[in-house]
Amino acid sequence: MPELIKSWTNESALQELSRKHHFNEILEGVVRSVTTRTLKERGEDNELREIYKDVLVIALPGGITGYCPAEDFSDVKHRNYARFVGQKEKFMISQIDLNSEFVLLSGKAAQARLKEEFWTQVEDLKEQNALGEKTFEAVVTSINENNRVVHIKISGQDAYIKPNEWSWNRRDGIDTQRGETIQVQIMRFDREQGIVACSRRLALPDPYRFLSTLKKGDIIAGKVSQVSQIHGIFVQLENGLDVKAGKIARLDEPDVGETVSCRVVNEITREPNGRIRGRVLILDYPNGKRRKKDLGSFLFE
Protein backbone atom coordinates (compact mmCIF):
# COMPACT_ATOMS: atom_id res chain seq x y z
CA MET A 1 0.00 0.00 0.00
CA PRO A 2 1.55 3.38 -1.03
CA GLU A 3 2.62 5.71 1.74
CA LEU A 4 0.62 8.84 2.46
CA ILE A 5 2.27 11.90 0.97
CA LYS A 6 3.66 14.49 3.37
CA SER A 7 1.39 17.43 4.13
CA TRP A 8 3.86 20.23 3.36
CA THR A 9 6.95 20.59 1.21
CA ASN A 10 8.68 23.69 2.56
CA GLU A 11 9.27 25.63 5.75
CA SER A 12 7.04 28.59 4.81
CA ALA A 13 4.06 26.25 4.36
CA LEU A 14 4.71 24.72 7.77
CA GLN A 15 4.90 28.17 9.37
CA GLU A 16 1.58 29.13 7.80
CA LEU A 17 -0.03 25.92 9.03
CA SER A 18 1.35 26.53 12.52
CA ARG A 19 -0.09 30.04 12.52
CA LYS A 20 -3.54 28.80 11.47
CA HIS A 21 -3.36 26.08 14.13
CA HIS A 22 -2.36 28.58 16.82
CA PHE A 23 -5.24 30.93 16.02
CA ASN A 24 -7.77 28.12 15.44
CA GLU A 25 -8.58 29.32 11.95
CA ILE A 26 -11.12 27.54 9.78
CA LEU A 27 -9.80 26.13 6.50
CA GLU A 28 -11.70 25.14 3.38
CA GLY A 29 -10.52 22.05 1.56
CA VAL A 30 -11.70 19.61 -1.09
CA VAL A 31 -12.10 15.93 -0.27
CA ARG A 32 -9.62 14.34 -2.68
CA SER A 33 -10.05 10.68 -1.75
CA VAL A 34 -10.95 8.24 1.02
CA THR A 35 -8.55 5.56 2.20
CA THR A 36 -7.78 3.28 5.16
CA ARG A 37 -4.39 3.97 6.73
CA THR A 38 -2.33 3.87 9.88
CA LEU A 39 -2.04 7.29 11.51
CA LYS A 40 -0.11 8.45 14.51
CA GLU A 41 -2.33 10.22 17.04
CA ARG A 42 -1.44 11.80 20.35
CA GLY A 43 -3.53 10.52 23.24
CA GLU A 44 -4.57 12.23 26.46
CA ASP A 45 -1.22 11.21 27.97
CA ASN A 46 0.51 13.12 25.14
CA GLU A 47 1.97 9.87 23.77
CA LEU A 48 1.89 9.12 20.02
CA ARG A 49 0.20 5.87 19.01
CA GLU A 50 -0.36 4.22 15.65
CA ILE A 51 -4.06 3.68 14.85
CA TYR A 52 -5.52 1.96 11.76
CA LYS A 53 -8.62 3.81 10.53
CA ASP A 54 -10.59 5.29 7.62
CA VAL A 55 -9.14 8.61 6.53
CA LEU A 56 -10.34 11.37 4.21
CA VAL A 57 -7.52 12.93 2.19
CA ILE A 58 -8.09 16.69 1.94
CA ALA A 59 -6.57 19.06 -0.64
CA LEU A 60 -5.91 22.41 1.05
CA PRO A 61 -4.90 25.71 -0.62
CA GLY A 62 -1.25 26.11 -1.48
CA GLY A 63 -0.71 22.49 -2.46
CA ILE A 64 -1.00 21.27 1.13
CA THR A 65 -2.53 17.88 1.91
CA GLY A 66 -4.40 17.26 5.15
CA TYR A 67 -5.82 14.08 6.67
CA CYS A 68 -9.14 13.87 8.49
CA PRO A 69 -10.03 10.64 10.35
CA ALA A 70 -13.55 9.58 9.36
CA GLU A 71 -14.88 9.77 12.94
CA ASP A 72 -13.68 13.38 13.11
CA PHE A 73 -15.23 14.44 9.80
CA SER A 74 -18.80 15.15 10.91
CA ASP A 75 -21.21 14.98 13.83
CA VAL A 76 -23.12 12.40 11.77
CA LYS A 77 -21.58 8.98 11.17
CA HIS A 78 -21.78 7.99 7.51
CA ARG A 79 -21.72 4.52 6.04
CA ASN A 80 -19.88 5.62 2.93
CA TYR A 81 -17.57 8.64 2.92
CA ALA A 82 -16.79 8.21 -0.77
CA ARG A 83 -19.86 10.32 -1.61
CA PHE A 84 -18.04 13.37 -0.25
CA VAL A 85 -15.16 13.06 -2.72
CA GLY A 86 -14.95 16.26 -4.77
CA GLN A 87 -16.91 18.35 -2.26
CA LYS A 88 -15.66 21.42 -0.43
CA GLU A 89 -15.76 21.16 3.34
CA LYS A 90 -14.60 23.20 6.35
CA PHE A 91 -11.89 22.01 8.74
CA MET A 92 -9.73 23.06 11.65
CA ILE A 93 -6.23 21.77 12.31
CA SER A 94 -6.28 19.34 15.22
CA GLN A 95 -2.63 18.29 15.14
CA ILE A 96 0.63 18.94 13.28
CA ASP A 97 2.88 15.88 13.42
CA LEU A 98 6.42 17.18 12.83
CA ASN A 99 7.97 13.71 12.78
CA SER A 100 5.67 12.28 10.09
CA GLU A 101 5.07 15.71 8.52
CA PHE A 102 1.31 15.16 8.55
CA VAL A 103 -1.47 17.64 9.29
CA LEU A 104 -4.54 16.11 10.95
CA LEU A 105 -7.83 17.94 10.41
CA SER A 106 -11.16 17.99 12.21
CA GLY A 107 -14.43 18.69 10.44
CA LYS A 108 -16.31 18.34 13.74
CA ALA A 109 -14.38 21.17 15.36
CA ALA A 110 -15.01 23.47 12.41
CA GLN A 111 -18.73 22.64 12.41
CA ALA A 112 -19.04 23.30 16.14
CA ARG A 113 -17.36 26.69 15.76
CA LEU A 114 -19.43 27.66 12.73
CA LYS A 115 -22.68 26.57 14.41
CA GLU A 116 -21.97 28.68 17.47
CA GLU A 117 -21.25 31.71 15.28
CA PHE A 118 -24.41 30.99 13.25
CA TRP A 119 -26.73 30.82 16.27
CA THR A 120 -25.23 33.98 17.76
CA GLN A 121 -25.80 35.79 14.47
CA VAL A 122 -29.41 34.70 13.88
CA GLU A 123 -30.42 35.42 17.50
CA ASP A 124 -28.89 38.91 17.25
CA LEU A 125 -30.70 39.52 13.95
CA LYS A 126 -34.02 38.40 15.41
CA GLU A 127 -33.57 40.68 18.42
CA GLN A 128 -32.96 43.58 16.02
CA ASN A 129 -35.99 42.57 13.86
CA ALA A 130 -33.56 42.28 10.95
CA LEU A 131 -33.64 38.53 10.22
CA GLY A 132 -35.61 39.08 7.01
CA GLU A 133 -32.98 41.50 5.71
CA LYS A 134 -30.14 38.97 5.79
CA THR A 135 -29.36 36.47 3.03
CA PHE A 136 -27.35 33.37 3.94
CA GLU A 137 -25.24 31.11 1.75
CA ALA A 138 -26.32 27.48 2.00
CA VAL A 139 -25.14 24.18 0.52
CA VAL A 140 -27.65 21.57 -0.67
CA THR A 141 -27.04 18.27 1.15
CA SER A 142 -30.01 16.18 -0.08
CA ILE A 143 -33.53 16.24 -1.55
CA ASN A 144 -36.36 14.12 -0.22
CA GLU A 145 -37.93 12.59 -3.32
CA ASN A 146 -41.23 11.93 -1.50
CA ASN A 147 -42.09 15.33 -0.03
CA ARG A 148 -39.64 17.39 -2.16
CA VAL A 149 -38.11 19.02 0.92
CA VAL A 150 -34.59 20.30 0.20
CA HIS A 151 -32.10 19.76 3.03
CA ILE A 152 -29.27 22.28 3.32
CA LYS A 153 -26.43 23.35 5.59
CA ILE A 154 -25.74 26.93 6.66
CA SER A 155 -22.40 27.37 8.41
CA GLY A 156 -22.47 23.75 9.49
CA GLN A 157 -26.07 23.92 10.76
CA ASP A 158 -28.70 21.64 9.21
CA ALA A 159 -31.73 23.44 7.77
CA TYR A 160 -34.48 22.76 5.23
CA ILE A 161 -36.61 24.37 2.50
CA LYS A 162 -40.19 23.26 1.86
CA PRO A 163 -41.19 22.99 -1.82
CA ASN A 164 -43.48 26.05 -1.73
CA GLU A 165 -40.50 28.15 -0.59
CA TRP A 166 -38.24 27.12 -3.46
CA SER A 167 -39.47 29.64 -6.04
CA TRP A 168 -41.97 32.46 -6.52
CA ASN A 169 -43.54 30.29 -9.20
CA ARG A 170 -45.35 27.53 -7.29
CA ARG A 171 -45.40 25.41 -10.46
CA ASP A 172 -41.60 25.33 -10.77
CA GLY A 173 -39.82 22.03 -10.34
CA ILE A 174 -36.98 21.82 -7.82
CA ASP A 175 -33.91 21.89 -10.02
CA THR A 176 -30.85 21.44 -7.81
CA GLN A 177 -28.32 18.84 -6.78
CA ARG A 178 -26.25 17.91 -3.76
CA GLY A 179 -23.27 20.22 -3.24
CA GLU A 180 -24.83 23.21 -5.01
CA THR A 181 -24.53 26.57 -3.26
CA ILE A 182 -27.71 28.65 -3.04
CA GLN A 183 -28.87 31.83 -1.31
CA VAL A 184 -31.64 31.62 1.32
CA GLN A 185 -33.41 33.63 3.98
CA ILE A 186 -34.27 32.21 7.39
CA MET A 187 -37.99 32.24 8.12
CA ARG A 188 -37.97 30.78 11.65
CA PHE A 189 -35.71 28.79 13.94
CA ASP A 190 -35.62 26.94 17.23
CA ARG A 191 -32.16 26.64 18.70
CA GLU A 192 -33.12 24.07 21.34
CA GLN A 193 -34.65 21.76 18.74
CA GLY A 194 -31.99 22.58 16.13
CA ILE A 195 -34.69 23.50 13.60
CA VAL A 196 -34.05 26.10 10.89
CA ALA A 197 -36.75 26.69 8.24
CA CYS A 198 -35.53 28.61 5.20
CA SER A 199 -36.80 30.12 1.97
CA ARG A 200 -34.95 30.30 -1.31
CA ARG A 201 -37.93 32.17 -2.78
CA LEU A 202 -37.46 35.18 -0.48
CA ALA A 203 -33.80 35.44 -1.49
CA LEU A 204 -34.80 35.81 -5.18
CA PRO A 205 -35.93 39.08 -6.82
CA ASP A 206 -39.66 39.59 -6.22
CA PRO A 207 -41.39 39.40 -9.63
CA TYR A 208 -44.52 40.98 -8.22
CA ARG A 209 -42.83 44.39 -8.24
CA PHE A 210 -43.17 44.43 -12.02
CA LEU A 211 -46.38 42.47 -12.40
CA SER A 212 -48.25 44.64 -9.88
CA THR A 213 -47.96 47.57 -12.33
CA LEU A 214 -50.06 45.74 -14.93
CA LYS A 215 -53.68 46.85 -15.28
CA LYS A 216 -56.71 45.17 -16.78
CA GLY A 217 -56.49 45.49 -20.57
CA ASP A 218 -52.69 45.83 -20.72
CA ILE A 219 -50.89 43.79 -23.38
CA ILE A 220 -47.93 41.64 -22.32
CA ALA A 221 -45.74 38.94 -23.85
CA GLY A 222 -45.51 35.48 -22.36
CA LYS A 223 -44.64 31.87 -23.08
CA VAL A 224 -47.01 28.91 -22.89
CA SER A 225 -45.90 26.73 -19.97
CA GLN A 226 -48.71 24.15 -19.82
CA VAL A 227 -51.62 22.92 -21.93
CA SER A 228 -53.80 20.42 -20.12
CA GLN A 229 -57.25 18.96 -20.76
CA ILE A 230 -57.83 19.05 -17.00
CA HIS A 231 -56.04 22.14 -15.72
CA GLY A 232 -56.25 24.31 -18.84
CA ILE A 233 -53.67 26.67 -20.33
CA PHE A 234 -50.94 28.43 -18.33
CA VAL A 235 -48.70 31.20 -19.58
CA GLN A 236 -45.40 32.16 -17.99
CA LEU A 237 -44.96 35.92 -17.71
CA GLU A 238 -41.86 37.97 -17.03
CA ASN A 239 -39.68 36.76 -14.15
CA GLY A 240 -41.02 33.24 -14.45
CA LEU A 241 -44.52 33.46 -12.97
CA ASP A 242 -47.32 31.30 -14.37
CA VAL A 243 -50.90 32.57 -14.69
CA LYS A 244 -54.06 30.94 -16.00
CA ALA A 245 -54.85 31.77 -19.62
CA GLY A 246 -57.62 31.56 -22.16
CA LYS A 247 -57.49 32.30 -25.90
CA ILE A 248 -59.61 34.07 -28.45
CA ALA A 249 -61.78 31.70 -30.47
CA ARG A 250 -60.08 32.14 -33.86
CA LEU A 251 -56.67 30.99 -32.58
CA ASP A 252 -55.47 27.42 -32.86
CA GLU A 253 -54.69 25.63 -29.61
CA PRO A 254 -51.28 26.70 -28.24
CA ASP A 255 -48.34 24.38 -27.70
CA VAL A 256 -45.98 24.44 -24.74
CA GLY A 257 -43.02 26.75 -25.39
CA GLU A 258 -44.76 29.05 -27.87
CA THR A 259 -44.40 32.80 -27.45
CA VAL A 260 -47.75 34.57 -27.16
CA SER A 261 -49.10 38.08 -26.77
CA CYS A 262 -51.78 38.39 -24.09
CA ARG A 263 -54.29 40.85 -22.67
CA VAL A 264 -54.56 41.07 -18.89
CA VAL A 265 -58.11 39.96 -18.01
CA ASN A 266 -57.81 40.08 -14.23
CA GLU A 267 -55.27 42.28 -12.48
CA ILE A 268 -52.40 40.27 -11.06
CA THR A 269 -52.68 40.21 -7.28
CA ARG A 270 -50.84 38.67 -4.34
CA GLU A 271 -52.83 36.78 -1.74
CA PRO A 272 -51.95 36.88 1.99
CA ASN A 273 -50.25 33.49 1.69
CA GLY A 274 -47.90 34.92 -0.96
CA ARG A 275 -49.51 33.13 -3.92
CA ILE A 276 -49.77 35.34 -7.01
CA ARG A 277 -52.91 35.07 -9.11
CA GLY A 278 -54.05 36.55 -12.38
CA ARG A 279 -55.60 35.67 -15.75
CA VAL A 280 -54.68 36.59 -19.30
CA LEU A 281 -56.21 36.06 -22.74
CA ILE A 282 -53.96 34.89 -25.58
CA LEU A 283 -54.43 37.22 -28.58
CA ASP A 284 -51.79 36.11 -31.06
CA TYR A 285 -48.60 34.17 -31.79
CA PRO A 286 -46.17 37.01 -32.65
CA ASN A 287 -43.49 34.59 -33.86
CA GLY A 288 -46.03 32.58 -35.86
CA LYS A 289 -47.84 29.39 -34.89
CA ARG A 290 -45.60 26.38 -34.52
CA ARG A 291 -46.58 23.85 -37.15
CA LYS A 292 -47.03 20.28 -36.02
CA LYS A 293 -45.32 17.73 -38.19
CA ASP A 294 -47.62 15.30 -39.97
CA LEU A 295 -46.26 11.89 -39.09
CA GLY A 296 -47.48 10.54 -42.42
CA SER A 297 -46.01 13.34 -44.50
CA PHE A 298 -42.92 11.29 -45.37
CA LEU A 299 -45.12 9.36 -47.82
CA PHE A 300 -45.45 12.48 -49.97
CA GLU A 301 -41.93 13.90 -49.63
Structural account:
This protein is mainly β and 301 residues long. The chain folds into three domains: 11-107, OB fold (Dihydrolipoamide Acetyltransferase, E2P), CATH 2.40.50; 135-203, Nucleic acid-binding proteins (OB fold (Dihydrolipoamide Acetyltransferase, E2P)), CATH 2.40.50.140; 208-284, Nucleic acid-binding proteins (OB fold (Dihydrolipoamide Acetyltransferase, E2P)). It is 12% helix and 42% strand. The protein has three helices and 15 strands. Strands 3-2-1-4-5 form a five-stranded antiparallel β-sheet. It has a five-stranded mixed barrel with strand order 6-7-8-10-9. A five-stranded mixed barrel has the order 11-12-13-15-14. The protein is elongated, with a radius of gyration of 27 Å. The N and C termini lie far apart (66 Å). 23% of the residues are buried. The mean pLDDT is 86.
The CATH class of the largest domain is identified as Mainly Beta
Please state the overall shape, judged from the principal axes of the Cα atoms.
Answer: elongated
H/E series: HEEEEEHEEEEEHEEEEE
N-end to C-end Cα span: 66 Å
The total beta strand count reads 15
- What is the second-level CATH architecture of the largest domain? Beta Barrel
Index terms:
301 residues; mainly beta; OB fold (Dihydrolipoamide Acetyltransferase, E2P); 3 domains; 5-stranded antiparallel beta sheet; 12% helix; elongated
